[in-house]
Fold this protein.
Amino acid sequence: MSNLTRIGVALDSDLLDKFDQHIAKRGYTNRSEAFRDLIRDELVEQTWERPTSKVVGTVTLVYDHHVRMLNEKLTEIQHDAFHTVLSTLHVHLDHDNCLEVLVMRGTAEAVRRVADALISTKGVKHGRLTITTTGTGL
Amino acid sequence: MSNLTRIGVALDSDLLDKFDQHIAKRGYTNRSEAFRDLIRDELVEQTWERPTSKVVGTVTLVYDHHVRMLNEKLTEIQHDAFHTVLSTLHVHLDHDNCLEVLVMRGTAEAVRRVADALISTKGVKHGRLTITTTGTGL
Amino acid sequence: MSNLTRIGVALDSDLLDKFDQHIAKRGYTNRSEAFRDLIRDELVEQTWERPTSKVVGTVTLVYDHHVRMLNEKLTEIQHDAFHTVLSTLHVHLDHDNCLEVLVMRGTAEAVRRVADALISTKGVKHGRLTITTTGTGL
Amino acid sequence: MSNLTRIGVALDSDLLDKFDQHIAKRGYTNRSEAFRDLIRDELVEQTWERPTSKVVGTVTLVYDHHVRMLNEKLTEIQHDAFHTVLSTLHVHLDHDNCLEVLVMRGTAEAVRRVADALISTKGVKHGRLTITTTGTGL
């Protein structure tokens, strides 16, 4: 934790009103905390633009485990990348549908490649990569 | 699984080129599969617009577990919503930083409310809600 | 939490010495806490003797995901029991070996049946059921 | 996978009957598979006797998250051992009770030390270490 600096930000009052309403709905009790979150979010996004940055990301997949060989293919992709995939949480949504969340850590390039391979696999109903951070320096 | 229908889509050839390059990079070997994914993604987004839709979502949080009482606050929020939070995967990134992924299921409104409460908690360095689907009807 | 009652326990001094050494090694700073843990452990075991008791258990499996159809079989068993299996954590140990931990909740009978089916599946290198509790009444 | 060797085992017929009944109840369709599992289980146990063996283990904990500072203490122990703790799955059993399963990898000595520290923490209602294997050589 570093020292707190107070800065001024000039804002159109209309824009500020909308922002205040937005963050109130989001549960913020403090405007500065909301600004800090926006800045950190930008910095996280930026990190992901350099292919060699060390990043952390999660991939969320929903699929029907009855699709022939789908399970095998997804497991194969994950094991080929086992240095990148830290762990996977599997929730059985119903008799057919699975949700899987993978936590990955590695270069932005490596994490994206694994995510793309999983999400584009035929039979995956919905897949999304969520980019985040190792937490260091934020 | 339903029957396959073949439809025609009229596309500017420039746009098609870009799309083909994009999906090749993403790992698709089949243009129709890429289109199906785009459509399903739209439908998932749409579901989330109705507050009472039954949805599944994941929340990814990165935080420093040394921040006073942060852990307690995040656990409290999750337990108050224990009907919505199915399970949480915790990965210890380093001596200070934690990554947590929560899998939630409930109405779009309830899932968003829990996500907002967690992400806006002071001390959370980065948080994102990833919206997905129960898989039913897709 | 209920009131604390102090009771006397008569013990052979040799046995007490061994017990004290044992719990010191286990990290207990307090002999009463160690006794309480022994009692709770007994009560948990007892609960599992009645087939209809509501219990919580975890199953730990290690297997080689290259074994033909093994993944499919394990997923099938879990989905057939999706009301009992709350969620599954998958860790990729190396290029070949997977560790899976399932959290289950249900009657002692149902949880045991799923655990037995998983552990006895050909190709599973090591499997164990760990019995625990819903926490209620302990 | 290595070649299959067929060996003879001399057994009292009473003992064999009991064993056959036991493994039938456990879901085995094949007596040899049941024997292989017994042998592997023995080998896993043996590995854990050498403090420096590389092992994998899971710890299952049930606790009331309302107990003052319990959450913080358990997180602290896990982070101090973050090289050993691969990941943790948290399930919210009800408004009060949490189940946590940790997957650990390291020397038998290190894994046991972390397990003991967690299980002996005051406020943990039930805790168990489940020993297993990295899968290599089995």
Notes: Strands of chain C lie at 54-64, 85-92, 97-107, 124-132. Residues 13-47 of chain C form one domain. Chain C touches chain D through 49 residues (CB under 8 Å). The longest strand of chain C covers residues 54-64.
